[in-house]
Design brief:
It contains 3 helices and 7 strands. By secondary structure, the chain is α+β, with helices and mostly antiparallel strands. It has a single domain (about 1-115), classed as Protein of unknown function DUF952 (ADP-ribosylation fold). The strands form 2 sheets. A 4-stranded antiparallel sheet has the order 1-3-6-7. The chain is globular.
């Protein structure tokens, strides 16, 4: 399962089309994480000032119409064999590949820290 962070408005925009992000247009891929811990770290690094709601899409990799490549983060040394790899989706996400969605919540210190099923 690939994990992708987005605002609720971002997910709900254009529900009749495959899901796409600004990074797809700018960088050529959609950023994802492989596990909840790294996704929450990304949430706090990239979405710290986002008022919310912040959502975590649960994407079934094998159901995607677009290619997935596991690559180091942009600031990682590509020669480092221990650099963690992140899944990048090279194209839009067909909505049928989204198996579910979790709402990301904040802890008492204001950090993104909890996940709850969203219905």
């Amino acid at each position: 399962m690939l994990l992708h962070l987005t605002t609720l408005d971002g997910w709900l925009a254009h529900p009749d089309r495959p899901y796409a992000t600004a990074t797809l247009a700018l960088e050529g891929f959609i950023h994802c994480s492989a596990d909840e811990e790294s996704a929450l770290a990304v949430a706090n690094a990239r979405f710290a000032r986002t008022p919310g709601p912040l959502m975590m899409l649960l994407i079934e990799e094998t159901a995607l119409d677009s290619a997935v490549r596991w690559e180091p983060a942009g600031d990682a040394d590509p020669a480092d064999p221990d650099a963690p790899l992140f899944p990048h989706i090279y194209g839009p996400v067909n909505r049928s590949a989204v198996a579910g969605m979790l709402e990301v919540g904040r802890d008492v210190e204001g950090r993104w820290a909890t996940l709850a099923l969203w219905s």
